[in-house]
Amino acid sequence: MLTALSVAAVGCSNNTSTSSSTSTTVPSTTSTTSLQSATWTAVWPTAASSTRYQTPEAAAAGFATDYLHMVDPVIGQFQQGDSRSGEMPVQPSTTGPVTTVFVRQLGSDNSWWVLGAGTAAISLTEPVWNASITTPVTLKGTAMAYEGTVQTQVREDDNSKPLGEGYVTGRGDAMGPFSGSLAFTKATSKYGAIVLYTTSAGDKGPPVIEASVVRVQFG
User: What is the pTM of this model?
Assistant: First the structure.
């Protein structure tokens, strides 16, 4: 089951296609503080950056390559939810597992932002979306991965380096429970995300083949 995001209304589809999208850099028309208030639910891009996306495809592509560090991801067809949100399926290849990227239009310019992501093979049940976390954070859920290994990160907004990294172990042949804790250094941002991902060899680092990303705040 994919990680649920209460802030996004999303639909379902199995159609995928290869496509390429680009981001746009636009001058800021509002203060960073007001923009942060309007976009705090999003993990990508950040209010402090100048990157904005005019289509859901571009937002998903930018998130997959720049945030998840996928290599040449396959971007599927947009799956409409409500009038301002939906899902974008992303794969590491045409036959690879699907990471569902949750996207929504936010802000006065109606640009597209990523609220999080989920994959059928990694289900995080703790912490929940928008939970306030402190170090060490307890991670619980179920997963199926190569040798059961799922890489874990705590990230904060506007920082390319994770605050903490580790791993949890589910099962390699079926979905199995995992439970672990992850220590992280003090955050300077209010918001961030828990990132769980797998690679083809089970090691940390790119290329990522699937991921679940859940928005959190720091207590």
Answer: 0.86
